[in-house]
Design goal:
The N and C termini lie far apart (40 Å). By secondary structure, the chain is mostly beta strands.
Length: 110
C-alpha cells in the first residue's frame, strides 16, 4: 500500500518560517510536488522537484519557499520563509501524479 505522509505544519507569525516534510513509501524515483488549499479556494500548485533535483515553483512563493529532497530517506521538504497570512492553507504532498498525503495545516497569523 502506497503511503505518502506529511508533517511539520503549525501556527506561525507572519514573517516566520516553517519546514514541511513528506515521506513517500514508494521510494525516490518520482516527481514530488506540494500543493495547498485555503478555505473556499481551489487547490493550487506550490512547488515540485524531480528525482534528479530539478525544481519548479509557483510565482507566489518564488524566493521565499525552497523545495528539496533526500533520496536516501525517500523524503521531500518544503522550507517556507517570510510567511504571509495568505500562505495559510492545508499543504498536501503528491508523489508522481496519483498519490496524495493527508495534508498538514499551516496557519500564519498577522
Amino acid at each position: 500500500q502506497v503511503q505518502v505522509a506529511e508533517s511539520g505544519g503549525g501556527l506561525v507569525q507572519a514573517g516566520g518560517s516553517l519546514r514541511l516534510s513528506c515521506v513517500d513509501s514508494r521510494g525516490s524515483l518520482y516527481i514530488m510536488s506540494w500543493y495547498r488549499q485555503a478555505p473556499g479556494k481551489q487547490r493550487e500548485f506550490v512547488a515540485s522537484i524531480t528525482s534528479g533535483g530539478i525544481t519548479n515553483y509557483a510565482d507566489s512563493v518564488k524566493g521565499r519557499f525552497t523545495i528539496s529532497r533526500d533520496n536516501a530517506k525517500n523524503a521531500v521538504y518544503l522550507q517556507m520563509n517570510s510567511l504571509k497570512p495568505e500562505d495559510g492553507a492545508v499543504y498536501s504532498c503528491r508523489s508522481g501524479t496519483m498519490y496524495w498525503g493527508q495534508g498538514t495545516q499551516v496557519t500564519v497569523s498577522s
